[in-house]
Amino acid sequence: MKLHHVPGSRSCRVLWLLEELGGLDYEVETYRLGDPRLRSPEYRALNPAGKVPTFEDGGVAFHESGAIVQYLLERHGRGRLEPAMTSSTRGPYLQWMHWSEASLLPPLGQINAHKFVLREADRIPAALELARRQFARVVGQLDQALAGVDYLVEGRFTAADLMAGYGVALARMVGELPESPQAVHGWFERLSRRPAFERAFAGGFGGA
To answer: Is residue 205 part of a domain?
Structure first.
């Protein structure tokens, strides 16, 4: 197995899970943000978008961090880090897995675009402020779900926490995590103390 990884990117989700599962034989190919190798024909044959993560296993390459997380749990999880298929918490677990990419990440992506990524002439202050308000709302949803509990489902750490935890980690790295959602901050502190989290995020942001 081989993971193509940029420190601080969504590939951290995959590296975090690989470390949580333990005992797996895998290789990590690390790039920096904007690495020209990601635009090479060889890499685009694996991932036409030229992004990370890309995951190779058994001669097959595929991408999208949530899909890779699900794949690894199905093949190597042995029932760990997710509710049983027959559990009443399976639905909420899947909801938070997909919410983490579909709802939490888009406004944060807009924040990063208008704060860092776009050329100065293309950055729109009003778009940045709108994205910040949208991000605050979705973080508020997470805060409500975490009120009075330690983790999102079953009172234990699962891959749903891992998927959402990446978004909160990224927001903290770029200085855009609102201060008010105290349940989110407490939950994230629990996540960040996990040794697998520390190893997955050891490279900082962007690999520069």
So the answer is: no
